[in-house]
C-alpha cells in the first residue's frame, strides 16, 4: 500500500495526482526496471552499478521530482542504488582468498522497499534531472507531507501553495 496525494492550484486549476510507493504490480515493475537499467536505458551510472554489484538493488518506489530551477513536477521511480549491509553478508573464504557471498533473499527476482531499508545501505542516489529544463530536482516521497504542502504551482507559479489532499492506495 502506498500514499496518494492530489495537488490542486487554486488559481489556474492545475492538478497533479501521484500514488507514492508501490502497489500490487511491484514485482513486474522491479524486473522491468532492472532489465532497462542493465540494458543502459536508465543511464550509464546505474548500468555500471548493477554490472559491478550483482547483489545490488534499486528502489523502484514512485516519488515526485520537483525541479529546483523551473518548479516542474514529474512522477518518477526513485532508482536509489543500494548495497547489502556488511553485517548480513555471510562470507566464506574460498581457495583463492576471495569472499564468496551468500545473500538472504538471493533467490528473489526483486527486493521490496522494506527489505532495502532493513538489510541494505544506500550506495548512491539516482541523478534525476528535470525533463523540462535539465535542472537539478528535489525528490519527495509520501512521507514528505510538509514539503508536499509547500509546492508552488509548476504551471502558473502562484506564490500561494497548492492545496494538498492525502490518502492511501494500492
Brief summary of the model shown:
The protein is of the alpha+beta class and 170 residues long.
Structure report:
By secondary structure, the protein is an alpha+beta fold. The protein has one domain. The chain is 20% helix and 31% strand. The chain contains four helices and eleven strands, in the order ββααββββββαββαβ. The chain has helices spanning 26-38, 44-52, 113-119, 145-149, and strands at residues 2-8, 15-19, 57-58, 62-67, 73-77, 81-84, 90-93, 99-102, 120-124, 137-140, 163-169. The strands form four sheets. A three-stranded antiparallel beta sheet has the order 2-1-11, with no helix packed on it. It has a three-stranded antiparallel beta sheet with strand order 3-6-9. A three-stranded antiparallel beta sheet has the order 5-4-10, with no helix packed on it. It is globular. It starts with a strand and ends with a strand. Mean pLDDT is 85; it is low at 87-104.
Amino acid at each position: 500500500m502506498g500514499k496518494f496525494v492530489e495537488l490542486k492550484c487554486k488559481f489556474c486549476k492545475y492538478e497533479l495526482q501521484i500514488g507514492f510507493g508501490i502497489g500490487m504490480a511491484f514485482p513486474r515493475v522491479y524486473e522491468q526496471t532492472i532489465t532497462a537499467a542493465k540494458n543502459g536505458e536508465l543511464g550509464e551510472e546505474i548500468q555500471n552499478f548493477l554490472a559491478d554489484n550483482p547483489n545490488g538493488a534499486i528502489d523502484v518506489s514512485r516519488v515526485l521530482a520537483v525541479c529546483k530551477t523551473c518548479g516542474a513536477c514529474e512522477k518518477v521511480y526513485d532508482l536509489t542504488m543500494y548495497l547489502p549491509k556488511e553485517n548480513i553478508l555471510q562470507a566464506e573464504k574460498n581457495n583463492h582468498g576471495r569472499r564468496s557471498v551468500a545473500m538472504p533473499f538471493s533467490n528473489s527476482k526483486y527486493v521490496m522497499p522494506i527489505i532495502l531499508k532493513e538489510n541494505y545501505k544506500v550506495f548512491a542516489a539516482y541523478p534525476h534531472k528535470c525533463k523540462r529544463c535539465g535542472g537539478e530536482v528535489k525528490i519527495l516521497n509520501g512521507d514528505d507531507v510538509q514539503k508536499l504542502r509547500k509546492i508552488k504551482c509548476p504551471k502558473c507559479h502562484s506564490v500561494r501553495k497548492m492545496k494538498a489532499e492525502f490518502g492511501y492506495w494500492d
